[in-house]
Amino acid sequence: MPVINMLEAKTQLSRLVEAVESGAEKEIIIARNGKPAAKLVAVEAAPKRPRRLGLAAGKYPTFDVEAFDALDAEVAKLFHGDDA
Q1: 3-class SS at 79?
Q2: Which residues of 39-73 are buried (b: 16+ CB within 10 A; e: fewer)?
Q3: DSSP tag of 3
Q4: Number of domain units in the chain
Q5: Is 15 among the domain residues?
Q6: pLDDT (tens digit per residue) in 61-76
Q7: Strands 27-32 and 35-41
Q8: Does 84 or 25 have the greater pLDDT score?
Q9: DSSP 2
Q10: For residue 36, pLDDT beyond 60
Q11: Which helix or strand (DSSP H or E) is residue 31 part of?
Q12: How far apart are CA 84 and CA 74, in angstroms?
């Protein structure tokens, strides 16, 4: 567990994060004026849950394409008047 001073941590932050992220270092202590002030550690990612397909199956009515298309003439009349 290396101890890094604040100035070096500022200039080398990307390298320090990469070292912790990759597992090369378990944790890095950042010191201010020689006294430990912060600890840099890797975040444990939450395990991904598999997607459950079909979760809402049967909860919603099916879409009736023919009933939808039957309204075409009525919608055209609303937009263009009786001339459509």
Answers
A1: helix
A2: ebeeeeeeeeeeeeeeeeeeeeeeeeeeeeeeeee
A3: E
A4: 1
A5: yes
A6: 888 888 888 888 888 8
A7: antiparallel
A8: 25
A9: -
A10: yes
A11: strand 27-32
A12: 9
